[in-house]
Amino acid sequence: MRGVARHHGAERGAGTVLLLGVVAVVLLCFLGLAALGAAQHARARAQSAADLAALAAATAARSGLDACTTASAVTRRNGGEQADCLPGPGGTVTVTVVVPVRGPALPGAGQGAVARARAGPDPDVVSGSAG
């Protein structure tokens, strides 16, 4: 092995740089997956909060109470913020809820997850126009 000359000069440390690049790509992939998971979790929480708020609001409207005040209280108890509440015909209520995303956020994803739900009797059946 004495006759073989080793030339390390130009490639010295190239493996370290390559390894650091691979580690950086893997970390970015994990961060991306964590952000997607956080966004999906927030979306599910927002939809649940909107569904519950709409049901509570429709029940309150049927009982003669303020539907939107009830929806707002239910939304807050479920970790969201009521963005909109629209009482409709025949005791229906449409509620829009925003829930903040916890954890890493995706760039350009906005402030949080938004969901909308409507609850109450079918307005066509209530008005008697169902076929």
UniProtKB/TrEMBL annotation:
The chain crosses the membrane at residues 17-39. Keywords: Membrane, Transmembrane, Transmembrane helix. Residues 107-131 are annotated as: Disordered. The keyword Membrane applies. Pfam families: Tad. Residues 15-60 form the Putative Flp pilus-assembly TadG-like N-terminal domain. Coiled coil: none annotated. InterPro entries: Rv3654c-like, Tad_N. This is Secretion/DNA translocation related TadE-like protein. It comes from Isoptericola jiangsuensis.
